[in-house]
Amino acid sequence: MALIYEVHPQDPQPRLLKQAAGILQQGGVVALPTDSSYALVCRLDDKAAADRLRRLREVDERHHLTLLCRDLSELASYARVDNAQYRLLKLGTPGPYTFILDATKEVPRRLSHPSRRTIGLRVPEHAVTQALLSVLGQPLLATTLILPGEQDPLNDAQDIQDALGARLDAIVDAGACPMSPTTVIDMSQGGAAVLRQGRGELGRLGLD
Predict the structure, then answer these.
(1) Cα dist. 61→58, 85, 95, 110, 123 in Å?
(2) What are the beta bridge partners of residue 32?
């Protein structure tokens, strides 16, 4: 069964975060709370772990996985962003928004959309997520923790353990987080197209 790390939601214990980071560095898949819902995460450059993410969600290579970044400067290393896009990104980061952007060469081709060479990126506003990203010093590859056939993400560490504990390496338990996925904005085709209305309000981006 997955190890459960019970951390403070606003001031997570560094010792526990280092242990969770160690599991990720060794190729693990971890359930992590974010500002929108729990997510499944792994290292960006770990192909086997990324394949596990897709199998857990039962999605194929056309499903956008997301890079969780610490800030906009890190995000810009993985996506090509013009001035207009950058202004919109500033309005939505950090926050519960996923932006579909043209991927740079820093993103392994197997992680970008197979026909469009795009990637989902976001900067989460959650103390535990941000602290773990800082410990790792690199983005995490993520997907919303929605079980196959379900509409809503899991929101409780024990429920995640019951459903997926045998297939996960660790669960970071910071208590309940929202149960709504991110709002997804596609900026790869020019303009800003709303692909999914989630927790992030469109008015904050001037798109309502």
Answers:
(1) 10, 25, 26, 8, 22
(2) 39
DSSP state of 109: G
Give the containing element (helix H, strand E) for 128.
helix 127-136
CA separation for the pair 119, 138 (Å, rounded): 16
pLDDT tens column, 171-204: 999 998 888 889 999 999 888 999 999 999 999 9
CB 119 within 8 A of CB 64: yes
Beta carbons of 142 and 66 less than 8 angstroms apart: yes
pTM: 0.92
8 Å CB contact between 192 and 87: no
Q: Amino acid identity, residue 155?
A: N
* Contact residues for 208 (Cβ-Cβ < 8 A; gap 6+): 201, 202
Q: Which residues of the chain have pLDDT under 50?
A: none
Which structural domains are found in the chain, ordered by start? 3-205 (3.90.870.10)
